[in-house]
Amino acid sequence: MKVLDTDYLVIGSGLAGLTYALRLAPYGHVTLLTKKSRTDANSSWAQGGIAGALGEDDSLELHRNDTLVAGAGLCHPDAVEILVCEGPERIRDLIALGARFNTEIGPDGEEILALGREGGHSRNRIVHTADYTGWECERTLLEAVRKQPSVEILEHYFACELLVRRLGGHRVCAGVLALDEGTGNYVAFRARATLLATGGCGRVYEHTTNPEVATGDGVAMAWRIGAPIANMEFIQFHPTTLYHPKARAFLITEALRGEGGKLCHKDGETFMERYHPLKELAPRDVVARAIVSEMQRREVDCVYLDARHIPEEKLKSHFPTIYARCLEVGIDISRDLIPIAPAQHYQCGGVVTDLHGATPIRRLYAAGEVACTGVHGANRLASNSLLEAMVFGHRAATHSLQFASEPLTEEEKNEAFAEIEEQLGEPMAVSEGQEVVRRIRKIMQRNVGIVRTTAGLLQAREQIEAALNLLKVGLASDMALWEARNIAQVAWLIVESALQRHESRGLHYVLDYPEPVESERHDTVLVNQVD
C-alpha cells in the first residue's frame, strides 16, 4: 500500500477545509483531499449569504440573541459568543482576498455592503453575492489557496477510514486511508493533524437540496473510531425548495422572503400569519412545519411562493440563479407563483468538538457542517453556516499549530494503519448497495422527516440496522459501497438520536411528545465504544 506523509491533512474542499488550509499554508505542507472536484461542496451551493453584525443598527448582542432564540435552548453560549465576535473578521478576510459581495451607496455617498435579512434575524445583517454567495466564497478561497505552493489539492480521493490507534493511554489520529478513484488503489495519508471538513448528510434523504457528495462520510468515519456524535436528530428541512417534476429539489433562498415574498396556496390564500407573528420570516422549523400542515390541510403536494409584487429588475439582479433555473422549467417568477415544498437541507449535529474544533481523538479536528460545535443548538439560524465553517476552520488551524514542531512518532505512523485490512469485511455487489440506499432514503423521508412518531422511528431503526448488517465493505470495493455504508450509519445515528429525545424542540418534532421538556434540554450524545 502506498504511504504518503504530510504535515496537515484536510478532508473536504468547502469553506471550512479551505479556511484551515489557507491558515496553515505558511507553517508546513498541507494536503487537501476531495472526493470529487474541488468545487463539489455544500458551501458552493449556499445561496442566502453570511450573517454578521456589520450594520450601524446592529450589534454582536443582537446577533447572539437571535442565534440563541433560533437554537431553542440548546445552543452553547460560549460557542455562539465566538461565532458572532470572530465572524465579522472572517468576513473581512474574504473581502480582503477579493470576494465580490453586493454593495450599495450609503447615506454619505460611500459604497457599503448591501445587507439582507432572513428568517429569525432582527436586523439586516446578511452579506451576500446575489443568490450564489457560497459559490463566491468558495471561488475566493480556492484562488487564494491555489497561490500557496505548500497546499496540494488532490481531487477524486475518497476518504474511507481514519487511521487511529490507542497509544500511551490515549487515542491518536495519524491520518486517513483513502481510495484513489483514478487508479482504484488505496493510499494511506499520514499527518501531524487531520481536519474533517466533509460537509453534511443530505443524501440520506430522498429529497434534499444537497449535492451528490453529501453522504455523511465524516460523521460515519468519526463514529467508527469512537468519536462522540451529538444532536443528529436536528435535521433542518429548508421550507422552500422548488417542487417540479422536471427539476430536482432546488433551493429557493430565504432571502426572497426577506425581500417580501409571500407563502400562499394556488388560489392566493396566505397562511403564515396563523402560525407566527414574524410570518414568512419566522425561524425555518416553524415555516417548514406550517407548510407541511397546510399541505395536509388542503391535501396538496406543494404550496407556493409569490414574488410577483417584487420589481422584475430586482428579481433578476438579486436572484439571477433562481430566476434562470425557474425559467428553465417554464416558471417566470416575476409573473408566476413558484411551487415549493420542504426538503432536507442541513444537519445541526455532528462530530463533537471543543471551541478550537478539536475532537476527543488527539490530532483530529472537525469544522463546518460535519461538526457539532454547539453553535446551532436545536435549529440553525439562517446564514450562520458559512460563518461557522470559516470561524471554526480558522480556530482549528490555529490550534493545530501546536503540532508544527511535534511530528508523529514512528509508532504513531506505522501502527495506526497496520491492521486496517483486518477490520473490513468482504464487499457486496455495487447494485445491491444502491438498492439498500434507495430503501433507506425512502424510510428516512417517510418516518424521520419534519413530523415524526415513535412508532415510525422504531420501524426505521429496524430497517436501517438490517441494512447495516448487509453493507460489509472490503478493500476490493469502490466508492459507491463506502458511501452506502456511510449513509446507513448516519441514518442510524439520526434515528437513534431522535428516539432518545422525548420531547419536541427546534427541528425535532415528534407527535408522541409535542411540547419541549426542561429535563430534556441537553445535547443528545452517542458514543461508539471501540477498543
The number of distinct helices, counting runs of at least 4 residues, comes to 15
How much of the sequence lies in strands comes to 15-25%
Arithmetic mean of pLDDT: 91
Largest sheet: 5 strands, parallel
How many strands in all? 22
CATH H level of one domain: which superfamily? Succinate dehydrogenase/fumarate reductase flavoprotein, catalytic domain
Task: Return the CATH topology of one domain.
Answer: Flavocytochrome C3, Chain A, domain 1
Label the structural class. Answer: alpha/beta
What is the second-level CATH architecture of one domain? Alpha-Beta Complex
| Helix fraction bin | 25-40%
CATH class of one domain: Alpha Beta
| Rough outline | globular
The low-pLDDT segments are none
List the helices and strands and how they pair.
Layout: E1 2-5, E2 8-11, H1 15-24, E3 30-34, H2 42-45, E4 50-51, H3 60-70, H4 77-96, E5 103-105, E6 111-113, E7 115-116, E8 126-127, H5 133-146, E9 151-155, E10 157-167, E11 170-180, E12 185-190, E13 193-196, H6 217-224, E14 229-230, E15 235-242, H7 254-258, E16 262-264, H8 284-298, E17 303-306, H9 312-318, H10 320-328, E18 338-347, E19 350-352, E20 364-366, E21 371-372, H11 385-400, H12 410-415, H13 430-447, H14 454-470, H15 479-500, E22 525-526
Parallel strand pairs: 1-12, 2-3, 2-13, 3-9, 13-20, 19-21
Antiparallel strand pairs: 4-8, 5-6, 7-8, 10-11, 11-12, 14-19, 14-22, 15-18, 16-17, 17-18
